[in-house]
Write a structure and sequence with these properties.
The chain is built from 22 helices and 26 strands. It has about 700 residues and is an alpha+beta fold.
């Protein structure tokens, strides 16, 4: 600034006698309104004097003057319009802008230019954080600076008037101009602005309020807000809030519904402050508001979508997890964490491939570049895999099948509508059978694949443990193989015998025809027995066979079983020894009898005669524990090798494959026994010594139990 210009500016400053001017409440109101509109904690009207900057009006600070070169006001005076310092620590001084004992990061000043063209000071605002004013705020600040000029002009003119009436009329006209100007400023602001007197009546209702509510200013001014603008159910809360503000407690923000002229309801977020009168008392309360109806609805819908998605994720039995572009876990459901042996919080943020997919089933390393999940990200396509393994926390592995689907978002949008659309898109993918995390933890990386349909932000994987399915497939294959073998053998023999008879090859040998027919009948009986045993085993295993339990005497069951098997035992010179006095069980007597006859039949077949009196089969029973009886069938046969004691209860398993040919049977008898005992809630096992015989033990309950099937 040149010396001549500076001298002219100081002369203009002296003409208005600002140093002698008392503190003007109107200027304080302008400072307060500037802070309110610009959303800053501090505002001031400053005048740049010869060796100091005086703060003639201030809001948020209590200081009268600062050294001349402390504030950026001189720079603002030299400019044309509002001058801003977005971040004072970078743009002005390392410590920021110092005002008294405080330092501020942001400054904006609108020059106060008098009619002569001399800039004598600034209407400025300060903030604690770096920022910038919006165009509307800049325009309002410039308008308010012109209002300061008007006020100064009015004050100067009033001082020059000799006559009280002229001074009074001039002031009134100036105040009218000021009021009209402030009204015009309020009407240009996009936010809702409502001014209340201390009784709660509305004295200002700006144009934005008229547009939103459907009421005119004439409809509202002079009335209480709760007469028309507040829904009935919210009136008590609104009045309580107003009373708190009138007592000096101003919440930084509060919300309530607005009721429009047509009955519409809008959610408004308000910020309020007090305006003082000339005596320093609270004169008015000014509230500025923003319509957040759309935002609130969008947030409510999004929260509902998140709850729905989380519910789906937690309820499904399959494992589901989401990855970002660097294969870090962003979301994982409880089923997935449980299958992998982790807690969900242990896995979030970790690299999934390194955690559970690092090694192939054969033990060779699984490189990330070869991983189908990574390929899904690169190719933006759904990948289905059914023959890999995942690794648990304890180092064990299990076979899995999984589906990897890339997560694609549209080009970045801002605002509530974009947020809602992303939530709805995620829910749509949930409905297609592949749940996604609504709260995606990672944004798209700079090198994320992009095309006209959007960009990839991650991948979602759904997997299932197929161990049980593989085991069932193996059991099915083994069962089919065994059954086909067991069926083929008697059928082949049956076909051969009948073929010889039907072909006439034995016409001249009648005794051979009878022999062939006996062979055919025997093999047919074996087939019937095999089919019956398979059906019986399936019926018991599928719980189709109901138990008709009753209190039964084990001794009576022993005697019935011995009577049924007596004819068969006589062929092998075997006799029974029964020891089961006063032992009773809660069981289905017919099923227990079936178990005993199967065990006795095996014992007879494998018993070796001892001495002239033959062999013995001991049938014993006793109480072994509370609520349980132990039943045993002991023979004196050749015994069972120790490594065969467990497998003999499996289907089609016998100690020696030749036993089925030599002794008969289908290999299902012991499997049926195990199923019957298990159905009663008991257990069955065998002990043996080679050459000394075998003992089959099983337990049965002695009273009813709710745990029995």
């Amino acid at each position: 600034m040149t010396g001549f210009a500076e001298q002219s500016r100081l002369q203009t400053l002296d003409q208005y006698e600002l140093s002698e001017m008392p503190r003007d409440p109107a200027l304080d109101d302008i400072s307060r309104l500037a802070a309110q509109i610009c959303n800053t904690p501090v505002a001031a009207i400053t005048f740049v004097e010869k060796d100091r900057i005086s703060l003639r009006s201030r809001y948020g600070i209590d200081i009268n003057e600062v050294p001349r070169h402390t504030l950026p006001c001189e720079i603002a005076l030299a400019g044309d319009g509002v001058y801003q310092v977005p971040d004072a620590q970078h743009d002005y001084a390392p410590g920021g802008i110092s005002v008294g004992d405080r330092c501020y990061r942001f400054y904006a000043g609108a020059p106060i230019v008098m009619p002569s063209g001399a800039a004598i000071g600034c209407l400025c605002v300060f903030d604690n954080v770096p920022r910038a004013l919006s165009p509307a705020q800049i325009e309002s600040l410039e308008s308010l600076s012109r209002t300061v000029v008007t006020r100064l002009e009015l004050t100067a003119r009033a001082r020059q008037m000799d006559h009280a009436s002229r001074a009074r009329r001039g002031v009134e006209r100036a105040l009218t101009v000021e009021r009209n100007f402030v009204s015009a400023v309020l009407d240009t602001v996009g936010a809702l602005v409502v001014v209340f007197d201390t009784a709660g009546r509305i004295v200002r209702f700006n144009r934005a309020c008229e547009t939103l509510s459907g009421y005119t200013s004439a409809d509202i001014v002079g009335k209480y807000a709760w007469e028309r603008l507040v829904p009935t159910e919210d009136i008590a809360e609104h009045i309580a809030t107003f009373h708190r503000m009138r007592s000096g407690s101003f919440p930084t923000s509060y919300e309530h519904f607005w009721l429009g002229a047509c009955g519409s309801r809008r959610r408004i977020a308000w910020t309020a402050t007090a305006l003082q009168d000339a005596r320093g008392q609270m004169g008015f309360i000014i509230a500025t508001g923003i319509d957040i109806t759309v935002q609130v609805r969008a947030e409510e819908q999004l929260r509902a979508l998140v709850r729905q998605s989380n519910s789906v994720l937690e309820s499904v039995g399959d494992g589901i997890y989401g990855l970002d572009l660097e294969s870090r876990i962003t979301v994982i459901n409880p089923a997935a964490a449980q299958m992998l042996g982790y807690r969900p919080e242990e896995m979030l943020g970790r690299n999934m491939h390194e955690l559970v997919h690092h090694t192939r089933a054969d033990g060779t390393p699984y490189l990330p570049a070869d991983c189908p999940i990574q390929r899904s990200l690169v190719r933006r396509e759904t990948i289905r895999v059914s023959n890999e393994v995942f690794w648990r926390k304890d180092g064990s592995s299990f076979p899995v099948e999984y589906v990897a689907r890339p997560q694609i978002e549209a080009d970045i949008e801002f605002g509530d509508a974009a947020l809602l659309r992303r939530g709805l898109a995620s829910t749509a993918q949930l409905a297609r059978g592949l749940p996604l995390a609504l709260s995606v933890a990672s944004a798209a990386a700079p090198d994320a694949p992009r095309d006209t349909e959007g960009h990839t932000v991650g991948v979602v994987v759904a997997f299932a443990d197929i161990s049980e399915r593989n085991a069932l497939d193996r059991m099915k294959d083994e069962f089919i193989s065994t059954v086909s073998h067991e069926l083929r053998t008697p059928l082949t023999s049956l076909r051969a015998a009948l073929g010889l008879v039907a072909g006439g090859a034995l016409t001249e040998r009648p005794e051979r025809i009878s022999q062939m027919l006996n062979i055919a009948i025997g093999n047919a009986d074996r087939l019937v027995q095999l089919v019956n045993d398979i059906l019986e085993l399936e019926s018991i295993g599928s719980d189709k066979a109901e138990l008709h339990s009753a209190m039964s005497s084990v001794g009576d069951l022993f005697r019935r079983a011995a009577a049924l098997m007596q004819a068969f035992a006589s062929k092998f010179n075997v006799e029974f020894v029964i020891e089961a006095e006063c032992v009773n069980v809660w069981a289905d007597p017919e099923r227990v009898l079936q178990t005993l006859t199967n065990l006795i039949s095996n014992a007879i077949k494998f018993s070796a005669p001892t001495g002239a009196d033959g062999s013995q089969i001991h049938l014993t029973a006793r109480y072994s524990a509370a609520g349980e009886a132990l039943i045993e069938v002991r023979d004196q046969g050749c015994g069972i090798p120790e490594d065969k004691l467990e497998i003999i209860f499996d289907r089609f398993k016998q100690v020696d494959a030749s036993d089925s040919r030599a002794m008969g049977g289908t290999g299902l008898g012991l499997a049926i026994c195990r199923s019957i005992v298990a159905q009663h809630g008991g257990t069955i096992w065998a002990t043996s010594k080679l050459g000394e015989g075998s003992t089959f033990h099983f337990t049965l309950p002695t009273h009813p139990s709710n745990n029995l099937r």
